[in-house]
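User: My instructor asked us to take a sequence, write out its structure as tokens, and then describe one feature of it. I'm not sure where to start. Here is the sequence I was given:
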Amino acid sequence: MKKLKAAVSHRSRLIEELRADPRLAREYLAAAIEDGDPKAMLSALRTVAEARGMARLAESAGIPRESLYRALSPKGNPRLSTLLAVIKAAGFRLSLEERKRRAA
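Assistant: Let's start with the prediction itself. The structure tokens for your sequence are:
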């Protein structure tokens, strides 16, 4: 009988890819922010944080690791200061650009 390879979960594979490619991580976060759903943004930020190493990121952001897990959980409601600290610790910065207006 042939032994089957263990399947890798989608989440594990995504974390590996985000860890390996900072540009992909940036695009992933940008897409979640563009989506406009706060839960999607929190989920994407948590995934990127896990790819970067949650404990290391929490230390760099000056946030206890347990608090960071709670803040980025599906029921989390982090402060803006927490979000900005995590984004910065992950190696990114938040910037704004004017939305293109639709032709009338």
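For the description part of your assignment, you could build on this observation: The radius of gyration is 16 Å. Try explaining in your own words what that tells you about the chain.
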